[in-house]
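1st attempt posting a full record on here, be nice pls
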Amino acid sequence: MIPTSRSLFVALMAAASLAVPLAAVTPAAAQTKLKVVLNWKYQGPQGMFFLADDRGYFKAEGIEVQLDQGNGSGGVPALVANGTYDVGFGDMNALIELAAKKPDEAPVAVYVMYNQPPFTVAVKADSPIKTAKDLEGKSIGGPANDGALKLFPAFCKIAKIDCTGVKLSNMQPNLRENMLMQGQVDGVFGYVNTIRFSAKLAKIEESQIRYIKYSDYGMDLYSNVIIVPKKMAKEKPELVKGFLRALNKGMQDSIKDPEASVAAVAKREPLINSKLERERFDATFADEMNHPEIKKIGLGSVDEERLKRSIDIMVDALALPRTPKVSEIWDGSFLPPASELPHKLF
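the predicted structure (as tokens):
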């Protein structure tokens, strides 16, 4: 019997009434929520996270992300280790220190974002402090979880300076540059581009600040990485792989369209200066993410020999109780294929 047009319409509508709820329910039920803590307040260079979210890359992997502002890269590994967050964007060197002291609790790095060391002590350009040696006996301040502050003991040893007389203090991040310019401290800890662009926002000319960079004294360290708990890595490897696939797509999109990347940040924080954040984006990609090694291994991966040297630097400089293996710090098995990682940023 050939169905009439009316009977066929009724049959199709009935089928649709059953299919639609299933289609609507299934993706929502499959979503795994991940709490992610970023390195700092919302800024231009974090756009790849938000772009990946806005373009549905996380959702396509069955992931719902909560992207929270951070208070410093140095504090991120502990936040992941204690379960406050599922994923963190923080300092690999703080991770090395945690793994050396508490190997059973320490999380693991799975994707490198900042492959060049951005750590610095910033001083006024007219200051008599011109080299690391000149920091002896001076006062230096920074946010409590700042990566450069946490690495200062290592810097002192490697730069061969006596830091026993250095007066260290903590300050709120938004006060850092003004406290330096007002002479309340002789220097401040931070990432070069964080200080540079925060100073611009405070109407401080770039020519008014000089940088004592850790990298100029042999501290060739990795910096910010994506960190996950070892339990998640072991029990939910596909979840970690899915997160990195989505983030890597956001990274690729950010490289192709920086304006869209910064706009994705502005969508969450409308008060940011988008023009300045675009400048910060460009400077961060050029200075902190563009190590020559990415041409060979891709952004996201590591040179394990270089990482081994970084671990040795940290253990020796901080007199850590043990030397973690590279495999305790880094697991590259969750990365997208090497062909899909960015090999060129410009």
